[in-house]
Amino acid sequence: xxxxxxxxxxxxxxxCGDDPLYQKYHDEEWGVPTFDxxxxxxxxxxxxxxxxxxxxxxxxxxxxxxKAFHQFNPEKIARYxxxxxxxxxxxxxxxxxxxxxxxxxxxxxxxxxxxxxxxSLSNYLWNFVDGKPIKNHWQSMKEIPxxxxxxxxxxxxxxxxxxxFVGSTIVYAYMQSMGIVNDHLVSCHCYDS
Length: 193
Prior knowledge:
It is a single chain. With 193 residues, the chain is mainly alpha-helical. It has a single domain (14-182), classed as Orthogonal Bundle (Endonuclease III, domain 1), CATH 1.10.340. It contains nine helices and two strands. It has helices at 20-28, 37-50, 55-68, 74-77, 82-88, 98-118, 121-127, 149-160, 168-177, and strands at residues 134-135, 181-182. The chain has a two-stranded parallel ribbon. The protein is globular and about 50 Å long.
């Protein structure tokens, strides 16, 4: 966990605004290099669920997702039946989009195949950056891209492996959240954390 500055005014990236849940996520998770496969898998599912919505919407439903999706256990999710899908579509605690629910199952199956081939999702992802986060030097939110050549490459490879809801923009947001890329503004207290 990061240490917060003791000053009353804390400089953060603009996107988290004044929402305490958003600020906590920004301060403690977003952009922190993550090598734990359980967390990487959870966020792969959550980033796909976020497509077309705001991240705060997904963040507010995160605990419900954990309950509904067996704490993001890929072995269990990969075996979900049609009956389970229909129950999930009735769960107001998650985003009840049929394609997104089905993509979580597909992605769990693809995740297991990828781990069989690459040993772990962590090894697979971090190999793209030689195990070190890309540290950008953005002065304002306007400078931060929605996608990059690297997110294009990862997206294409994931799609080739059968993953769903892994377009380049989603993959770039995923890279940011998992700390594969550090897109905290240089003025943000988390920039050098």
